[in-house]
Write a structure and sequence with these properties.
Length: 622
């Protein structure tokens, strides 16, 4: 593959290209065995009280009156946002829009953003976000996950970076944006020049905290202390702490690194997908990203990073106690005894679902202190009888030191026999009940190929379908209603599928119908009324296995009934990712990432954007 082909792959396809699954010879056999209707039902129903999966998890849509205060929308294949009647939307901010007035003229429809203003504007590829309010003012912290090379470097052949300046431009347009917003005549606007406005890029200095701070695994020539690092990167999902700070989650950091000679020997490089050739060209012009010269630099990325959005001078802090992997999001709740619990997925085929619990309790009104530095990391193990347990990743259990466990968490989790998952994306917890959900987006390798650690990925309880094209949403209830308990029971809230194409397990669970079908659930958040908002990042070809599913979308699920209804469709090419609400809950902010065509302007380059959605009657929407 040429440089330009490599650099224009998605992070996911980049990893798959380097590590493909076996050819189709074994494929048909395995799929047939695993998903024949009889085989599938037999498998699920044979597991003890497995029938409960269908009785509680896969509810009949006709069973209860709908709680959805909207008319569901049909699929779309257009280049627009579609919403139910009675709802309106407006773009709040687009890639390249100014955060400070000195960048008012920065964006050009043909050329994008110039280097000089590239850290003064809203970044590209908007993703997870949270809203913070203080003294009547509202601030959004939001991730810019990656930068599309051809979109950002239009004059470079195929978008392949040509210089250190090209690389610096890309680095500046990713990371995190903090911005004040204010009500406008319709919807909201960004408050340019607000003292809250801030860009955190791949070159912003961050503090390293927790057990890995200062450890030799994290020391480099430019930072012999191992305590400070430049940049938080590939910021995917997000979370909010109980004390009102932002958690940004570093996902596909591996793609920024390459090696001018050989990839270093040692733990973790292969398991984390660190390869000779990166997908962004950074290593050609920025030696920090050349692992041959700086073998420890990648060990300083892949963490949950905490940012105080209301204190622009506070440095971001990498919380190493929460482990190092391809972090999707970080969902914080409290255990019954007051300790802090964080649920986290590692988004890679056959990787794992994690939990962190602080040693100390959090008292309302107090700052976080070292609650995210002193605690225990766990990984989930699921049993086929619909129970499971959180397994503590300790030196005794893993045979690794605490530093190795946190720096190479995947290897530690494999050592304790964690359950391989179908790409854990966002975790969302019910606002009033001890109930948690994780989107398992899809896994075409399920049953066909082990994960990068060699762990078996045969279909298992929460990941029951081989070559899983569609994904599912897992749900668990901690024992005793306590997120601090080590045991839980689980079921599947929904298995996505296509009942118009398949009549086996690929048709999905009974709460999937021709009227609400979708694939690849990814972003998720609960609204205050206890409804689960589901965003998709999947195949929007609308053909073959995906016929009748249309563009990516946002749906709303009722946890009590299993009902799911489509609320929004995205412009073709885009995924929907990131969701938060205004303080008064009358406006929902939704991220539209990597649109196609020239959305939303109708001319020039496609621009990832946050849109504001409201009800025309001004009522709350969540
Ligand atoms: Fe960045 Fe797993 O999504
Ligand atoms: Ca995602
Ligand atoms: Ca995804
Ligand atoms: Ca994505």
């Amino acid at each position: 593959m040429t440089d330009h082909e490599l650099t224009n792959l998605s992070p996911d396809d980049f990893d798959e290209y380097h590590d493909p699954r076996p050819g189709p010879c074994g494929f048909d056999m395995v799929v047939e065995r695993a998903i024949s209707r009889r085989g599938f039902l037999g498998g699920v129903l044979a597991i003890g009280s497995g029938a409960a999966v269908f009785e509680t998890g896969f509810a009949s849509p006709a069973r209860a009156a709908s709680r959805f205060e909207f008319e569901p929308v049909g699929i779309a294949t257009d280049r627009a946002v579609q919403l139910p009647p009675g709802f309106s939307h407006k773009v709040l901010v687009r890639w390249g829009d100014p955060l400070w007035s000195d960048a008012n003229a920065a964006f050009s429809p043909d050329e994008g953003v110039p280097l000089a203003q590239s850290d003064r504007v809203f970044g590209e590829c908007t993703d997870g976000m949270e809203l913070f309010a203080a003294d009547g003012r509202e601030v959004i912290a939001v991730n810019s996950e990656f930068a599309r090379l051809r979109v950002n470097l239009p004059s470079a052949s195929q978008g392949v970076p040509r210089s250190a300046d090209d690389v610096r431009l890309l680095q500046n347009l990713q990371g995190v944006t903090v911005m004040e917003i204010a009500r406008d005549t319709d919807g909201y606007r960004v408050v340019t020049d607000s003292h809250f406005n801030r860009r955190i890029t791949h070159n912003t200095e961050c503090r390293i905290a927790g057990p890995l701070a200062g450890h030799e695994l994290l020391r480099t020539a430019s930072d012999p202390s191992g305590n400070r690092v430049l940049g938080t990167m590939n910021n995917c999902g997000a979370g909010q702490t109980l004390w009102g700070t932002y958690l940004t989650c570093e996902e596909n950091f591996n793609g920024y690194f390459g090696a001018s000679s050989e990839v270093p020997e040692g733990a973790g490089y292969a398991r984390y997908g660190l390869r000779k050739k990166g997908r962004n060209g950074y290593e050609w012009f920025d030696p920090r990203f050349d692992m041959s010269e700086n073998p420890n630099e990648p060990h300083r990325h892949g963490f949950v990073t905490e940012i105080d959005p209301l204190n622009p001078s506070a440095p971001p802090v990498k919380r190493t106690a929460l482990g190092r992997f391809k972090h999707e999001n970080a969902e914080m709740v409290q255990a019954a005894d007051g300790r802090v619990v964080v649920y986290m997925g590692d988004d890679e085929r056959g990787e794992f679902l994690y939990r962190y619990i602080s040693d100390a309790v959090w008292q309302p009104g107090q700052p976080g202190g070292d609650l995210l530095d002193r605690g225990q990391l766990y990984v989930a193990r699921f049993n086929d009888d619909l129970t499971g347990e959180w397994v503590a990743l300790t030196p005794d259990a893993t045979g690794m030191t605490q530093a190795e466990i946190l720096c190479f968490s995947r290897i530690a989790a494999s050592a304790v026999g964690a359950t391989t998952m179908d790409r854990p994306e966002w975790v969302a917890c019910h606002p009033t009940k001890a109930e948690a959900y994780c989107a398992l987006t899809n896994n075409r390798n399920r049953g066909l190929k082990p994960n990068a650690g060699g762990d078996d990925t045969s279909p298992n309880g929460p990941n029951p379908r081989a070559a899983n094209l569609y994904g599912q949403i897992l749900r668990w209830h901690p024992d005793g209603g306590d997120h601090g308990a080590d045991g839980f029971s689980w079921d599947l809230y929904v298995m996505a599928g296509n009942p118009t194409v398949h009549d086996d397990a690929y048709a999905g669970s009974p709460n999937v119908t021709p009227g609400n079908m979708f694939n690849s659930p990814d972003g998720m958040a609960f609204s205050s009324d206890g409804l689960l908002w589901i965003q998709t990042d999947g195949n929007d070809s609308n053909t073959g296995d995906f016929a009748g599913m249309g563009n990516n979308q946002m749906l709303v699920g009722d946890p009590a009934t299993g009902d799911i209804a489509r609320f929004m469709t995205a412009p073709r090419g885009a995924e929907v990712t990131g969701l938060c609400w205004s303080s008064d809950r009358t406006v929902a902010f939704v991220g539209v990432q990597h649109p196609g065509g020239s959305w939303p302007d109708g001319v020039g380059r496609p621009r990832s954007s946050i849109i504001a959605i409201w009800r025309d009657d001004g009522a709350t929407i969540g």
